[in-house]
Amino acid sequence: MTATYEKIATTTLGSATTSVTLSSISGSYTDLVLIMQIASNSSNTLFARFNGDSATNYSTTRLSGTGSSAVSDRESNSSTMALSNYAYPLSTLGTTTHIFQVFNYSNTTTFKTAMCRGNSASDGVDATVSLYRSTSAITSLSISTNGFGGTSSLLTGSTFTLYGILKEA
Amino acid sequence: MANTYTLISSVTVGSGGTTSIAFSSIPATYTDLVLVLSLRQDQTAANDGQIPAIQFNGSSSNFSSRTLRGTGSAASSFSAITNILTYGSDPSDFTSNTFANTQVYIPNYTSSNNKSFSLDGVTENNATNAQAALQANLWSQTAAITSITLTPFIGGAAVFVQYSTAYLYGISNA
User: Is B36 an 8 Å CB contact of chain A?
Assistant: First the structure.
């Protein structure tokens, strides 16, 4: 049987950094799944970009549970995807989990959609859906807690593993 | 090419039901665990039939969670300091032969950090009342997870009924 779920790249941060980029993503898969356990030195939203694109090509709808209420908001024409609302990474490793899925990422005819499930038992649970208005294949994926311009960092020990999902031939 | 998504073990509940489903001696050779559940209890909704409890390494302590839920008519959120899997099983007063479906993702289960894990679940019912839950969970313990046990939250003689299933997968980033 063909393996249909394969590791593409994995990174454990050896030192703090403002962003992580997983690059040279092969176009040979159907979908992508990024599993993240992140610590950050500030309680900031988790952001993502594709292909290093900083133009206002992203929009995101966020649905969250705060522990006391259900809330939703939306950002349009943004230069980043805001992957969290209440489930932002905390300063202690192992306290949050984010699962980011990108669908049909290598096609060159349609815009791209992505989903993220954020989990923080102390602050909230998030489900976000994003649109990237580009027909380019996604070949790199970047993550930051500083909006790709602030001062907060992803801390040592944070883990990022990118998997590719194949349809069986 | 290496297969990174591997079935570790599975359970299908037999006639008469079972008071617990256990996965023991989980090998430390994977990176993450995925638990895929299809459960139903012999308890009514009013008797917590929608709620399984989860234990890691035999412990039901040091769990906390925040949940976003939809009931078919409203959305709300709550927090808990118990080891519950919200809407992780269908209760006995939901449409017969329906089971709740749940996926639990446990990253870095062998790490020496606390264990954050994710739950997405739905109950099934041919009525106006059926639920969906997204739940953020934390087990505030640094020990590697070597066993997982599921029980009806109410405990006692309550059982997961026949044809309930649980599958445990390991995902490797090696």
Answer: no
- Kindly state whether residue B141 falls inside one of the protein's structural domains: no
What interface predicted TM-score (ipTM) does this complex get? 0.94
Average pLDDT over residues B142-166: 97
Residue B67: give the domain boundaries.
Answer: 7-136+146-171
pLDDT of residue A3: 74
Inter-chain CB pairs, A–B, below 8 Å: 125
In this complex, the residue of B66, B173, B174 whose CB is nearest that of residue A121 is B66
Taking the C-alpha atoms of residue A160 and residue B137, their distance in angstroms, rounded to an integer, is 19
CB atoms A5 and B5 under 8 Å: yes
- Residue to mutate among A1, A7, A68, A155, with most B CBs inside 10 A, is A7
Look at residue B2 and tell me if it is in a domain: no
Residue written as token pair 């209760």: B91
Q: Tell me, which fold does domain A5-165 have in CATH?
A: Jelly Rolls (2.60.120)
Task: Please tell me the distance from the alpha carbon of residue A129 to that of residue A118, in angstroms, as a whole number.
Answer: 11
Task: Tell me how close the Cα of B159 comes to any Cα of chain A, in angstroms.
Answer: 28
- Averaged pLDDT for residues B140-165: 97
Q: Where are the domains of chain A?
A: 5-165
Using the predicted structure, report yes or no on whether residue A1 has a pLDDT greater than 70. no
Which residue, chain included where needed, has tokens 């993240």?
A36
Q: Does B73 touch chain A (CB under 8 A)?
A: no
Asked if residue B116 is part of any domain, the answer here is yes
Residue B130, amino acid: A
Is B128 contained in some domain?
yes
Cα–Cα distance, A95 to A49 (Å, whole number): 24
Is this structure's pTM higher than 0.90? yes
